[in-house]
Structures are given as structure tokens and as C-alpha cells.
Amino acid sequence: MLTLLHVSDLHFGPPFVPAVAEALLRAAHELAPDLVVASGDFTQRAKLEQFRAARAFLDRLPPAPRILVPGNHDIPLYRLFERLFHPYDLYREHIAPELDVAVRLDGAVIVAINTTSPLRAITNGRVRASQLDWCAQELRAAPAGAARIVVAHHHFAPAPDYEGGEVMPHAKEALDRFTALRVDMILGGHLHRAYVGNSLDVYPGKDREHGIIIVQAGTATSRRGRAREREKNSFNLIRFGDEVVRITHYIFFDDANGFAPVSRHIFPRTGRQILSGPPDAEA
Predict the structure, then answer these.
(1) CA-to-CA distance for 280 and 283, rounded, in angstroms?
(2) Do 23 and 250 contact (CB within 8 A), yes or no?
(3) CB burial of residue 185 (10 Å; 0-12, 13-18, 19+)
(4) Under 8 Å between Cβ of 54 and 23
């Protein structure tokens, strides 16, 4: 069993909510994940003090391996010289030196790609052909039976019930490549609302039988929740078993001063198109 804690869109700065962040830290230590994934937008305006605060928060998370990718808010917006010539300097110094990273754990290969585009997009992202080639190289080397996971800030598949979730250019081509590589799951953020589903919900693709589990995280610690998670905070806990993947979605409740599970989702692992046994059986 591999357990992942998936958070996104911390937005250190004016929208950040300290009490929610403390509750998130308590929940993270109680859940004791094997891996922490943070899918971008650590800051609100890519300022030095915001990066320092985000770094201090990350250092308080459980001592597990980290997968970190930048979001569009982690790039200077109005400081044009920095945006044009040094867009990632503060991110590299305080969050992570790598922008694209591959991590191998026992039973899993995770590739995280930087989908920000300082020169071409302010809000929406971009995925480059060279990144997809690199993902293919890393994922083809995965051992048989290993979970194959892709992480990016921007989404490849929109939530079916949410208008305004424009995907990146060439997102469908990327989904087709990931499907051919038998990717189990794509993790992302950016939308400020959670969505758990399957790529086939929104794009039938070239392969109509092998969809990819899509897991979008809401904003974990800011006031910037949108759509049905307006002014709400959430994160996801993901457990990979041999046969199934279980995803539990947590939301913060003021009256409990903490996060609580509100929904659970069960999917068969890639290559196992149907669930065998009762859905509440342990993996």
C-alpha cells in the first residue's frame, strides 16, 4: 500500500488562512503519508516573504519524500524584469531546485512537470513536447505493476460540472500519450476546487477503454476556493493497493476546527478494468 497526501494552491500571502494551515499540518501528521505531493501555487504573488513562509510550512509537514511543482502564481506577475529573465529564481531557492522531476518509490514512479509558461501565458499553462518525451522515457522504465503517476499544476481534463476550467493547449494529445503509457493517475491543482473522476468523462480519446484517474485538489489553505468549494479548503488522500486505488477527499469545517473526509472514490488499477470483490474490501 502506497499512501499519498495531495495538497495544492497554498497561496501564502493575503489569501492565506493560518488556522486552516495548522489544521492541515495536524491532519498530515495523523495520516502519515508515504509521499507528499504539492501541485503548485505556493505563493500569491511570488514575493520573497511569501516563499519563505511557504518553505517554513513545507518543513513542518511529515518527514516523507516530496513532489513539488510550481504554479503560475509562483512566477512574478507585475515585476516584469524578473518574469522575463529570472522567473524561477525565488522558487528554486526556497521551494525546489528542479522544475521537472521524477521520483521512484517502492511500487511507484511519479513524474512531475512544470506547466507554467512565463512568456506565453499568465494564468493558463503549457506542456511541451520535450516534457512529454521525457515523461515517456521515465515511465517506460517503470517496473511491471508499479503505479505510474503524473503531477502538474495545470489541468489536462476539466471538471465536467465546472465552467471556466479551460485546459492547456494540446492537453488532449498529452492525455492520449499518457493513456498509451498506461498512466494510472494525473494529479493537479489550479482550479481551486476538487474533482475526482476519469479522463473518459471529458475526452473519449483514441483508446476508449483505458481512461486515466484524474485527481484535482482544491486550495488547501487560502480563501480562494471556487465553484462548489467557494471559500472552502480541501485536500486528497490517495492509497494505491495492488488491485484498486482509493481516494478520500477532505474538507475543512469551522465548527470542527479541522479537516474531515466527505467523499471516497474507488477505481480499479490500470489493466484491471473492473473491480473484483465488494467495493469496500481492502486492497
Answers:
(1) 9
(2) no
(3) buried
(4) no
Q: Compute φ and ψ for 237, nearest 5 degrees.
A: -115, 125
Burial (CB count <10 Å: 0-12, 13-18, 19+), residue 30: exposed
pLDDT at residue number 158: 82
Q: Of the ranges 148-157, 170-179, 198-207, which one carries the lowest mean pLDDT score?
A: 198-207
**Whether the predicted model's global pTM rises above the 0.85 cut:** yes
- pLDDT tens for residues 99-144? 999 999 988 999 999 999 999 888 899 999 999 999 999 999 999 8
Quick one: which H or E segment has residue 20? helix 18-31
Going along the chain from its start, the domains and CATH numbers come out as 2-268 (3.60.21.10)
Burial 148-181 (b: 16+ CB within 10 A, else e): bbbbbbbbbbbbeeeeebebbeebbebbebbbeb
